[in-house]
Specification:
This is Secreted RxLR effector protein 161-like. It comes from Juglans regia. Helix content is 37%, strand content 21%. The chain is globular, with a radius of gyration of 18 Å. By secondary structure, it is α/β, with parallel strands linked by helices. β3 and β4 form a beta hairpin. A 5-stranded mixed β-sheet has the order 4-3-2-5-6. A two-stranded antiparallel ribbon has the order 1-7. The protein contains 5 helices and 7 strands; from the N terminus they run αββββαβααβαβ. It has one domain: Nucleotidyltransferase, domain 5 (2-Layer Sandwich). The two termini are 35 Å apart. The longest helix is centred in the middle third of the chain and has 25 residues.
């Protein structure tokens, strides 16, 4: 940075305090015969003040074990929160497909569809409706990705209330109690 200021210093101090206080945390991977793939997708619509790009966040579990998570800026501008959430769902479906192929190569088959949780009902409606309307035709490619996997029986979508949306950790700042509660649900514990 060319011109650091007091707010930048304050942010660095907060990050260092967080890192010091969480040095003993790790992901707990319990032994489980449950091989169900479960994913949570979320997006923070137009949160970048400069570009208005949205942030995608998702986490994927095999049984109760967190195996993959990601937070990434979407590289296009979404016209609505439903669109940004749907783009997040499309990203998760691609990752779920990859994990299913990886497990298949390891001779582990997943007999049930992967469950994809999303807290945006409009995005879930787009996923369930193969008809493209004037308002959704610009996201048609992402629609095909998600709808195809739903049609093939590899993915099923479900609504999750925002208070139980684990991917919120990856898309937006949260109050400490909410942050810690979601971390615990993701299997992050003090070792």
């Amino acid at each position: 940075m060319e011109n650091p200021r007091v707010p930048h210093y304050d942010a660095v101090i907060k990050v260092l305090k967080y890192l010091k206080g969480t040095a003993g945390q790790g992901i707990f991977l319990p032994i489980s015969a449950n091989m169900e793939l479960i994913a949570y997708a979320d997006a923070n619509w137009a949160n970048c003040p400069d570009t208005r790009w949205s942030t995608t966040g998702f986490c994927i579990f095999i049984g109760t074990s967190l195996v993959l998570w990601k937070s990434k800026t979407q590289n296009t501008i979404s016209r609505s929160s439903a669109e940004s959430e749907y783009r997040a769902m499309a990203a998760v479906v691609c990752e779920l497909t990859w994990i299913r192929y990886l497990l298949y190569d390891l001779h582990l088959t997943i007999g049930t569809p992967s469950t994809l949780y999303c807290d945006n009902k409009a995005a879930l409606h787009i996923a369930a409706n193969p008809v493209f309307h004037e308002r959704t035709k610009h996201i048609e490619l992402d629609c095909h990705v998600v709808y195809d996997k739903i049609s093939e029986g590899q993915v099923k979508t479900a609504h999750v209330f925002s208070s139980f949306q684990l991917a919120d950790l990856l898309t937006k700042p949260l109050h400490s109690p909410t942050f810690n509660r979601l971390l615990l649900k993701m299997g992050v514990i003090n070792i």
